[in-house]
Design a protein that fits this description.
alpha+beta, 3-stranded mixed β-sheet
Length: 120
């Protein structure tokens, strides 16, 4: 990677991050960073919003999650990218969220009934 006058190269199994000015030194890439290469879904204690965005990228849908607490709820999910759409449905069922289907793969997830709601 080259940014300005700085050039950094990562070897296999490493990842690069960069800020507005320059790349940082290469760091070892974890399993989740390399999972996409093998079409694996891999999130451990990740915020629900991050997991849902990843699932949406794999199956082409769109999930909106209402409520800051629900969006930040940590979840773990391991699976195959081929099952991303069903993984999203299973995750919603496990979390007992209310799902509004708006068509064409678009869903809105609402906190379970009886839970204290927070601002969107």
């Amino acid at each position: 990677m080259q940014a300005g006058n700085t050039s950094v190269q990562a070897d296999e199994g490493q990842q690069l991050r960069f800020n507005e000015r320059s790349p940082e030194a290469p760091q070892p890439a974890g399993d989740s960073a390399l999972a996409w290469r093998e079409r694996r879904l891999h999130w451990i204690s990740a915020p629900l919003v991050e997991v849902s965005q990843g699932l949406d990228r794999w199956h082409g849908g769109r999930t909106w999650i209402v409520g800051a607490r629900l969006r930040q709820q940590p979840v773990s999910l391991l699976g195959s990218a081929e099952g991303a759409a069903s993984s999203r449905d299973q995750l919603a069922a496990q979390l007992h969220v209310r799902v509004l289907h708006l068509g064409a793969g678009v869903q809105v997830w609402l906190p379970p009934r009886g839970k204290v709601r927070d601002a969107p």
